[in-house]
Amino acid sequence: MERFLSDQEMARLGKALNTFVKKYPVHVLAIEFTLMTGCRRSEVTDLTWNAVRSDRLNLADSKTGPKQVWIGTEARQLLDLLPRGNPQDRVFRNPTSLRPVTLERIWILVREEAGL
User: Which residues pair with 58 in a beta bridge?
Assistant: First the structure.
């Protein structure tokens, strides 16, 4: 089912994300990046620095096979907030454990907070 958020729902989503940014900063950045790029959740959580170019992502293993995702200035600026690791390191990872983030739990919390 294809569904788009209304302007009011987007505003509530942004407000909900702001409530979680201090406790889950990398998770919130990953969700925002997902919203900006239209990437699938697994494409974001599995994203490595090796796939990041200045204006695009080179995804070797997406659901539909290899593909390029063009990213805008805002998405690029978001990536610039994250510490760059080795090429094989995940982009969105927990800063203390260095393990990749998972978004299932936080996404449920954000949706509940936003009333979505």
Answer: 68
- Helices (H) and strands (E) counted in the chain, each on its own, are 5, 2
Burial of residue 28, with CB atoms counted within 10 A of its CB: 0-12 exposed, 13-18 middle, 19 or more buried? buried
Asked whether 47 and 92 are in contact (CB, 8 A), the reply is yes
∠91-28-44 over CA atoms, to 5°? 40
CB 33 within 8 A of CB 90: no
The Cα 91–Cα 100 span in angstroms is 8
Tokens in use for 4?
């788009």
Residue partners of 81: CB distance under 8 A and separation at least 6: 29
> What are 80's two structure tokens?
């610039």
For residue 94, count other CB atoms closer than 10 A to its CB: 14
pLDDT in tens, 32-76: 999 889 888 889 988 999 999 889 998 987 667 788 999 999 999
Amino acid at 91: V
Beta-bridge mates of residue 62? 65
